[in-house]
């Protein structure tokens, strides 16, 4: 099997300036995604898709390739991961290079583990899914969610669930926002998707300064020197 890792890293982040190369515990945050991809041994190539020269330079410093710069069309706020996937696959196709599987790894996923990459890859092939992603279980039943109006008044979105026991409600999951395995010729919109459940401790959405601080706290906790295994050895 020939596998490609794509790390999308656009330069124009707004909520956190230069988010993809901002220092995370002393190292550009994109370096964590690059290093775990390389350490996993799963990929024939690890590339970064970017429109930014600084991101390109830093990515190459940590071992990724930047064989071509991202097009202007896919460098705006409206570009989605599927657009990046298509552009990269088509560019390699022009060079007569085809990969059996592609893994899109987000640039701001410092809690990603080698174990998660490997186990989800095995799941995709053992179960015949077209794509697989890590997900996290909601800590509280979403069937008991509230909605709120402009005055602050709340009401249940699904009042029929008010009297049901938590254990009788179907578990729900959300995307961890870390990576996506995809079979060649498929995309993220294909319906035959699989999921790999990971711990909430391994997940942190990073959209603002508080999120960033929480991610650093989780990373420190997972990498304490007295742990039996380090995070990037897949020991979490």
Folded structure, characterized:
With 236 residues, the protein is α/β, with parallel strands linked by helices. It has one domain (3-135, 174-233): Alpha-Beta Complex (Spore Coat Polysaccharide Biosynthesis Protein SpsA, Chain A). It is built from five helices and eleven strands. Strands 1, 4, 5, 6, 9, 10 and 11 form a seven-stranded mixed sheet that branches. A two-stranded antiparallel sheet has the order 2-3. A two-stranded antiparallel sheet has the order 7-8. The longest helix has 14 residues, at 81-94. The radius of gyration is 19 Å and the shape is globular. The two termini are 27 Å apart. InterPro entries: CMP-NeuNAc_synthase, Cytidylyl_trans, Nucleotide-diphossugar_trans, PseF. This is Pseudaminic acid CMP-transferase. GO terms for molecular function: N-acylneuraminate cytidylyltransferase activity. Keywords: Transferase.
């Amino acid at each position: 099997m020939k596998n490609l890792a794509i790390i999308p890293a656009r330069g124009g982040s707004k909520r956190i300036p230069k988010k993809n190369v901002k220092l995370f515990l002393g190292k550009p945050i994109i370096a964590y995604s690059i290093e775990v991809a390389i350490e996993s041994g799963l990929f024939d190539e690890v590339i970064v898709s970017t429109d930014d020269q600084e991101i390109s330079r830093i990515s190459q410093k940590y071992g990724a390739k930047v064989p071509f710069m991202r097009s202007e069309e896919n460098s705006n706020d409206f570009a989605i991961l599927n657009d990046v996937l298509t552009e990269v696959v088509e560019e390699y196709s022009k060079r007569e290079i085809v990969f059996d599987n592609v893994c899109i790894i987000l640039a701001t996923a410092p809690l990603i583990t080698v174990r998660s990459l490997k186990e989800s890859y095995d799941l995709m092939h053992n179960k015949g899914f077209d794509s697989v992603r890590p997900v996290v279980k909601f800590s509280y039943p979403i069937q008991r969610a509230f909605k709120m109006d402009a005055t602050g008044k709340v009401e249940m979105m699904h009042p029929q669930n008010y009297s049901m026991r938590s254990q009788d409600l179907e578990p729900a999951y959300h995307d961890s926002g870390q990576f996506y395995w995809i079979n060649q010729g498929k995309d993220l919109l294909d319906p035959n998707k699989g999921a790999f459940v990971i711990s909430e401790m391994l997940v942190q959405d990073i959209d603002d300064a508080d999120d960033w601080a929480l991610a650093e706290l989780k990373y420190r906790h997972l990498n304490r020197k007295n742990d039996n295994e380090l995070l990037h050895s897949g020991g979490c």
